């Protein structure tokens, strides 16, 4: 599957036609991360996808394949956390007795605050 690259946009981003590889907002400064010991990783990727990453890196000073992949993993991790929170909040019922426990804590805190015991 071959993808044509567009001309760089006003931010210098070059993406495959009809796709956004990375968001247009500013990237994280990796100066601190770069100074830490980072484990090496060997992965296998689609050659066309790698061409897109290489084209993106070619027009963005300070980026390399590792930083693009690290950013992609950070986005994936954030998406996983969002999904986990959505599942947690979508749960129909709180654990048995939790609402009653919180009600008791609120009443006790209010009584102490108002000087009643």
Can you characterise this structure?
This protein is an all-alpha fold and 117 residues long. It has one domain (31-113). The protein is built from 4 helices and no strands. The protein has helices at residues 31-35, 47-58, 65-90, 98-113. It is elongated.
Task: Name the descriptors.
single chain, 117 residues, mainly alpha, 4 helices, disordered N terminus
List strands and helices in order, with pairings.
Elements: H1 31-35, H2 47-58, H3 65-90, H4 98-113
The number of helical segments is 4
End-to-end distance: 73 Å
**Main sheet overview:** none
The secondary-structure class comes to: mainly alpha
Uncertain regions spanning at least 5 consecutive residues:
1-8, 15-21
Whole-number count of domains: 1
- Give the overall shape: elongated
How much is the radius of gyration in Å?
24 Å
Summarize the structure.
The protein has four helices and no strands.
